[in-house]
Design brief:
Helix content is 29%, strand content 19%. The chain is α/β, with parallel strands linked by helices. Among the domains are: 90-170 and 256-286 and 298-354, P-loop containing nucleotide triphosphate hydrolases (Rossmann fold, 3-Layer(aba) Sandwich), CATH 3.40.50.300; 177-253. The structure holds adenosine-5'-triphosphate. Residues 104, 107, 109, 129-135 line the site of adenosine-5'-triphosphate (ATP). Pfam families: ABC_tran.
């Protein structure tokens, strides 16, 4: 299949192990909106959906070794000590961006972005508007290819877009800010879309799984509604349900990394809390069985919301002028001495960030 960059925002949860033709059929549906759903299939399947899991702490015993780090700091020994701690165990790295560059025309957006997402992590990407947060998310998801640098999925370099090759070992889902539901499909059809399209699960079992998954995100009795009949918060929850629903017929289940692009944007404070708690609740931090269906091994959230930073993530990457200029644990954010971070956290007009 041709490596066509995906345009617009109507992407579903992406599965790196999905067949090319199945990915393509989803894409053609997205772009033309005319392909009928495949509702006819049979077979006996187990049904499991996303649920809660206890918290796993990735901080090393010596927490100082892992404290907030200004990457460009003059004190390189500190940065070195961090990398030494991390080099001890690379087996839990699910996604790595290594020196990633991306430009759009004359606009040089990403200029050497490097970070790792480890199994069990809840990572936030923050930074001023237009610094490329959504862009790096799309590059991680395989919707955009970097101009330079590498994206490694479980240590294996992805050569192009997600549609170019099949990489086993981890599934990556992207939940768009706009929820990106198909307007002409019901909630049931939206949530079960990939299963209707790509699995052999019988329709009634998919329907049951959709109901269970919607219940897991706090929605009941909305299966037959159209997206236009839902509030913004409900749409985001439907999008979340769609990203965690799972073909439970597979024997081997890879860990899944979910990428959320501003999941609480435009929501009132209480609706935000609901979504933030849902993001936590589908996370399977610390669980010994990494292959449990419907559970999210790690997630990355792009956000501007303080409540989301506090409530939904443990570690933060601060993106500014095309690079990660600071990273640290969430609790270290507000007390950071980094002038960029301090200005951002306080919302001050005075400081190195210019608008
Ligand atoms: N497909 C594209 N074509 C051209 N320019 C693009 C494209 N995608 C993003 N950009 C530009 O790249 C820059 C970074 O965009 P991006 O959406 O990644 O920023 P962001 O940090 O997520 O911003 P915000 O916080 O406002 O959502 C912006 O100037 C944007 O206009």
């Amino acid at each position: 299949m041709a490596a066509t960059p995906l345009v617009g925002s109507n992407m579903l949860s992406l599965n790196l192990c999905c067949k090319r033709d199945s990915f393509g059929s989803a894409k053609s549906f997205v772009m033309h909106g005319v392909k009928p759903l495949n509702l006819g299939s049979s077979g006996k399947r187990r049904i499991i959906c996303g649920c809660t899991a206890p918290i796993r702490d990735f901080r090393p015993a010596d927490a100082d070794e892992f404290s907030a780090t200004t990457i460009n700091a003059k004190d390189s020994s500190k940065a070195e000590s961090v990398s030494m701690v991390r080099e001890q165990d690379e087996t839990d790295v699910l996604i790595e961006c290594r020196d990633v560059y991306k430009s759009f025309g004359e606009k040089h957006i990403l200029r050497g972005v490097s970070f790792k997402i480890r199994h069990g992590e809840a990572v936030g990407i923050i930074g001023p508007s237009g610094t490329g947060k959504s862009t790096i998310l799309k590059i991680m998801a395989g919707l955009l290819a970097p101009d330079k640098g590498e994206v490694l999925i479980r240590g294996r370099t992805r050569r192009g877009l997600i549609s170019d090759e099949e990489i086993a070992g981890v599934r990556i889902g992207l939940v768009f800010q706009s929820a990106a539901l198909f307007d002409s499909l019901t909630v049931r059809e939206n949530v079960g879309f990939l299963l209707y399209e790509n699995s052999n699960m019988p329709v009634d079992q998919i329907s049951e799984l959709v109901t269970d998954t919607l219940a897991a995100v706090g929605l009941k009795g909305v299966e037959d509604r159209l997206p236009a009949e839902l509030s913004g918060g409900m749409k985001k929850r439907v999008a979340l349900a769609r990203s965690i629903i799972f073909d439970t017929t597979k024997d081997v289940v890879e860990p899944e990394v979910l990428l959320y692009d501003e999941p609480t944007a435009g929501l009132d404070p209480i609706a935000s809390t609901v979504v933030e708690d849902l993001i936590r609740s589908v996370h399977m931090k610390g669980e010994s069985d990494v292959s449990k269906p419907g559970k999210i091994a790690s997630y990355v959230v792009v956000t501007h919301q303080h409540s989301t930073i506090r409530r939904a993530v443990d570690r933060l990457l601060f993106l500014y002028e095309g690079k990660v200029v600071w990273e640290g644990m969430t609790h270290e954010f507000s007390s950071s001495a980094n002038s960029i971070v301090r200005q951002f956290a306080s919302g001050s007009l005075d400081g190195p960030i210019k608008y």
